[in-house]
Amino acid sequence: MTEELNNSTENIQADEPVAPIAESILPVTGPSASAVNKINPLLLTLNLVMLAGIIILYILHFTGAGSRGSQISGAVAKANKGAISVAFINNDSIFKNYELVKRMRLEFDEKGKRLEGEVAAQQKAFEKDAAYFQEQVAKKAISDQSAQEIYGQLQQNQQKIYDLRDKYAAELQQSQMDMNEALIDSVMNFLHRYNEKYKFDYILSFTKGGNILYANDTLDVTVDVLKELNTEYLIKHGDK
To answer: What is the pTM of this model?
Structure first.
């Protein structure tokens, strides 16, 4: 299961630089110089101890952060740290592998073939009638008045076929739009539920050749999303 996010960059401000030890031991002149010189070794020792402690804390801080980061990486880790978290899904993979899309595509293809068959059947019948009409005209088997009436009827039949073809094309286009809307609603509704667990700030859609030209693979949650999408779908519609 892929559940990864952007690798985060933590801006950690270092403590204020410690003044050089030498500056804390100012040269002393006059009668008290000998007394100060006796204190200087003690001050030097204390400063060195403090400096060593600061260095140890600094090392522990950064090595501790590194060990935590090595245990959890990607999108979920960043979400857990409270930083802005981003993940993405691959649209092409969703369209190819989501069971809902497979069912809708199958239904759309079946409907398209059925409507295309109806238009083809009417077109075939029209061509048969037109050929018979031409044959009768060539034989002069019908009067000019009858020929004009039949020709007018054939034109009307042909126009009906054109209108039916346009109607079915518009119907298929609307079906495709409805399918796309149903798919978007299904995925978005699922992602709302999915994100209750991970709390991503953004879940983007990635399509090859789309607006996003590059995406870090560690942010790709497509496999996990597809697994849960298909699980939900099969529970609801597996026997239909």
So the answer is: 0.60
